[in-house]
Amino acid sequence: MDTDEKYEIANLVMRHAIKCGADEVAVTIGESSRSDIEIREQKIDRLLESISSGLALTLYVKKKYSSHTTNHLKKAELLKFVERAVAATGYLAEDEFRYLPAPERYYRGGGEDLKLMDETIALLEPDVKIDLARLAESEIYGTDERIVSITSNYVDGISSEVLVTSNGFSGETKGSYAGITASVSVKGGTGRPQDYWAEYSTHFDGLVKTGIGRKALDRTLQKLNPRKIASGKYPMLVDNMAAGSIVTPFITALYGSAIYQKSSFLAGCAGTRVASEKLSITDSPLIPKDFGSRHFDAEGINAVMRQIVEDGVLKNYFIGTYYGRKLNIEPTTINPSNLVFKTGNSDLESIIKSITKGVLVTGFNGGNCNGSTGDFSYGIEGFLILNGAIAHPVNEMNISGNMKEFWNTLVETGSDPYMFGGNHTPSMLFDNTGFSGL
Fold it and tell me: Domain 3-221 belongs to what architecture?
């Protein structure tokens, strides 16, 4: 289905919904394809190729709101789908805050090409994808008698979507990705540790294709013979891959839905210090070839760079149209794009050398954070740092505290932002984190 066909169907649905009694309408039509190839024991364990398409219909009928989806896109079926959806909306309760965004907030086109789509991914032969998945495994297969299992994957996908609203918005988004991962488990000493490595890119020619299996094995072998350490407060260095897990509760607390539902420990904190001066976060939607880049959000709102936290001071929330009205707060955007963190001057190795005694955290296992209070407890795995060097692996330990206090203990960010997702988290060093173990 090309772009013109998507717009034709979307406009047909929108007009018919208005004819059936809807006051306002938004229609999204999307199409996607994906591949997933998994290799185990030098054999193809899974080979998945899928194509999907669907339509999402949002209706506003006499102050009543509903949303509906279907993957039946033939005209006759769609018209009946619309008629039933409009009729069903009439049974819902009124909500005076439910209506489309103000048209002046919409993206109006003319933005630079963000280069989010690599059309060549759709043309790749299956043999190319299978060989890349095999390569990640073959780099380490049979190289170490301690290896118990290796799983390697090649994945890719492309997608396109149009959004049309009855008050004047129309826009298209396209995107692609490709990735290679390897996961390894080993035996020896105590425990049976496992770890992984992954490489991703929005474009096939930017994808790192070698060294993935070797990095996965190296990371796993480092975890052999873990030990607990005495409970207490230590400096905690979180590597850039794991940092996203500890950042997530902070970002979630900035959503309009969390604030309205009183499940945000950062409600009412705009303009105040919520972290140490080392934390600065920018929502940056216009980075070419980046995973979260966009010209408009899910509502069609024009995407702009926006400071979220500056030197520890909270500047903006993620407020969509609906919760902006309910909270009487000026809306910003419904969700983040690319969250870019201000980085420091030292890489992970240099920060380790600066620590006399502390813990390097490379993963979080279970636990939770209370969104309302900010109280948290997480299981961790990682390494004890002694006199600027890795001493031994640690596991079966927890960290606990309160997010409001915790983020004020951030003393350094690394020069190594993680680039394979929407959160560009660097390594982060926190002072006096509470660990429980022995």
Answer: 2-Layer Sandwich (3.30)
